[in-house]
Write a structure and sequence with these properties.
The complex is a heterodimer of chains A (about 525) and B (about 160). With about 525 residues, chain A is of the alpha/beta class. Chain A has 11 helices and 19 strands. Chain A is globular. The two termini of chain B are about 20 Å apart.
């Protein structure tokens, strides 16, 4: 019997594996994907971005989205989860994100609540993530800078392209505050890991140097937790009060059982809810920890969208980062206060095949080939550079956005697949459009041409949370404030499922920090 | 042995496309031959781009047809598109695409691209050509980094030790 069994090896599970294993407990981590070490990692665009090497094929494993099959909602099935593939844009949530309802009030049609914990309770763990996982950056004062217990980041900011000086000048001209984007990438050798090699292939790719602060490189490879790759957990058993075992299939569909004192579920929001819903028994007829009917409810994503502009530039040093962000975290319109969000600026991804494919059409939408395509590609790809921005704002939780276990359809393991119902509250688009205007203004001031913006209700599958929200009321939440199931004494859920609202930043830093917080709770319980 | 394996792989695409009208067979060709011809035509008058031989797209399309992560629907679509292109040629010139001269094939492509389904198919074939031209040379295209040189790109490092199939 293990002390702790963790299902899922990403940012939600690995801090617990790291803390508990380093405290001498017997920890096992079950991960559906393969184990890739640094020496296995390459920057093969065809494998990673065209053939989706790190996600299941849709023939074998799929989701139903708004009643249809064919959408790809997978992120990263590999040890360390999608933290391997993140760009590592790291922002903390702000104090007001923890009390969205009491600060900004109710919005019709949205299930907004305050968090069960405050920013002050999570701050020491945000700080811990900077030091243990590794976050590089430079603290720059601005109106919405959150309180910090450490004055500086432990690692200096990454090297930047000279084009950032254009950006800085444009923001100064427009009187817009900006700051260097903190990144979960080491800028110096530290933590027994290498520094960034500036390979120019970061987001979507695993890191070959170990500089990116993935759960694998930063935590699982730094502790003695037993990691079992290619282990798909298909069911959890329980009695009335405790989870008693989990069952998993290996790659050949042999079934195994693991018993432990404490179980931690962190398979990413959609899959965690799916596993609970598929684990019905006589005590939990609607799924594990689901007598309240709340499992799978209030699924959220990050709202917002993207924009871009093109610059006529040559001789740019490839690989150096752009790393600039602006935060208009609160704004007023027609005498009313609105919660705003974050805009990160970055170069268009280095993937050359996808960039070439974007050149296939002329201005009228006619497909090009031969000399015409050659000339367009040559001009665009060799003498211009695209600067993009990504807007992050709240995707409000609603009754219409949730995940269920499909009643009929099963994956290759014979397990009912997740059926996702998507809905974006109209308020999300309004805020996104407001924030995008500022991004557009900056690009214009910098001298960009061909500026385009796309704020939409399309959910980014890599920024998903909710489904097992935490709270003090067991009738309206699945987990208590420590992310333990209200109805089970030894089950914790520590991926982004616990989040009742998402803040207006990418989630990973918050997931890491919360998982370190829960690790302390479990350590206390075991001692 | 290797030759035999290649032959078997090619076999998927070497089945004959018969072009008939009112029960009379006008022409016959194969998917592979049609695709090879089309891929060359999609480089028409492109003298600065890597050559067909450097891109090696016909070998790459064989990889695609045998790839574990390309769906059966996609493979069927690739085969069907070659038939549609021949049917377009048949309608315009009463013969197969491959038996036309270069200028007439361009006219067929222009006509083909005026249909949404034709334009989508060209997009698909060009996409795979870009993979071959700009992907890592380990896949058999982008000879000596000629594709990357054309667009001033530096390939990702570390490069793959083997092709992902």
């Amino acid at each position: 019997m293990y002390d702790i069994c963790i299902v899922g090896s990403g940012a939600g599970g690995s801090p617990i594996a790291y803390e508990l294993a380093n405290a001498g407990y017997r920890v096992v981590v079950l991960e559906k994907g393969k184990y890739y070490h640094e020496e296995d990692i390459d920057k093969d665009e065809i494998a990673v971005s065209r053939r989706d090497k790190f996600t299941p094929t849709l023939k074998d494993e799929f989701h139903i989205v708004n009643g249809e099959r064919g959408w790809n909602f997978w992120n990263g099935s590999l040890v360390g989860g999608s933290s391997n593939l993140m760009s590592g844009y790291f922002h903390r949530m702000k104090p007001n994100d923890f009390k969205l309802l009491s600060t900004y009030g109710k919005i019709d049609g949205a299930n907004i609540v305050d968090w069960a914990i405050s920013y002050d309770e999570l701050e020491p763990y945000y700080d811990k993530v900077e030091k243990v996982i590794g976050v590089s950056g430079e603290v720059k004062q601005h109106k919405f800078l959150e309180p910090r217990s450490s004055k500086k980041f432990p690692y200096p900011k990454l090297a930047e392209t000279k084009v950032t000086t254009w950006f800085d000048k444009a923001c100064k001209n427009l009187n817009i505050e900006f700051f260097p984007t903190p990144r979960a990438i080491l800028s110096t050798p530290a933590l027994d890991r290498n520094t960034c090699a500036y390979s120019n292939f970061c987001g979507s790719y695993a890191c070959a140097t170990g500089a990116k602060s993935s759960a694998r490189a930063a935590l699982l490879q730094k502790c003695d937790a037993k990691v079992i790759p290619e282990a798909f957990v298909y069911k959890m058993d329980s009695d009335a009060k405790r989870v008693t075992a989990v069952h998993y299939y290996d790659a050949k569909k042999n079934s195994y059982t693991i018993k432990a004192k404490i179980f931690v579920l962190s398979a990413q929001a959609i899959e965690s809810s799916r596993l609970l819903l598929n684990s019905k028994n006589k005590y939990f007829k609607n799924g594990l920890a689901n007598n309240s009917g709340q499992v799978g409810k209030n699924l959220i994503f990050s709202a917002g969208g993207v924009g871009e502009g093109r610059f006529d530039v040559k001789d740019l040093t490839p690989g150096l980062f752009f790393n600039r962000s602006i935060q208009e975290y609160e704004y007023e319109k027609d005498g009313k206060k609105y919660k705003g969000g974050t805009t990160d600026f970055l170069y268009e991804h280095a993937n050359i095949i996808s960039r070439a494919i974007k050149e296939f059409y002329d201005a009228k939408g006619n497909i090009l080939w031969g000399k015409e395509l050659q000339d367009k590609m040559k001009k665009s790809l060799t003498s211009t550079k695209v600067l993009t921005f990504e807007v992050f704002n709240d995707w409000l939780p609603t009754d219409k956005c949730n995940v269920e276990a499909d009643a009929k359809l099963k994956d290759k393991y014979g397990v009912n697949v997740a059926s996702i119902n998507l809905y974006s509250h109209p308020h999300d688009i309004k805020v996104g459009e407001h924030l995008a205007k500022q991004g557009e203004k900056v690009l214009r001031e910098m001298g960009a041409r061909d500026i385009s913006v796309n704020i939409s209700s399309s959910p980014p599958p890599n920024l998903v949370a909710g489904g097992c929200r935490f709270g003090d009321d067991a009738t309206s939440s699945v987990l208590d404030k420590n992310c333990k199931a209200h109805e089970l004494d030894n089950l914790y859920v520590t991926d982004a499922s616990f989040m009742p609202t998402g803040g207006s930043v990418p989630y990973t830093w918050t997931i890491y920090a919360n998982s370190f917080r829960v690790a302390d709770v479990i350590l206390k319980e075991l001692s | 042995m290797i030759k035999r394996r290649n032959f078997l792989k090619a076999g998927l695409l070497s089945s004959v496309i018969f072009l008939a009208s009112q029960e009379k067979i006008f022409a016959a060709t194969t998917t592979l031959h049609t695709l090879e011809c089309m891929q060359r035509d999609l480089l028409y008058d492109a003298k600065v781009m890597p050559t067909y031989e450097q891109i090696n797209p016909n070998k790459y399309i064989l990889i695609i047809f045998n790839h574990s992560r390309i769906s059966d629907e996609e493979k069927e679509y690739l085969k069907n598109g070659a038939t549609w292109l021949n049917e377009e040629a048949m309608e315009m010139y009463k013969t197969s695409y491959v038996s036309l001269d270069s200028e007439k094939r361009q006219r067929v492509l222009i006509s083909f691209s005026s249909h949404n389904w034709g334009s989508d198919y060209i997009y698909k074939i060009l996409s795979y050509m870009m993979e071959s031209m700009l992907g890592d040379p380990i896949y058999g295209g982008n000879k000596n980094g000629s594709g990357w040189d054309f667009v001033g790109h530096i390939g990702g490092q570390p490069s793959p030790k083997e092709a992902y199939l």
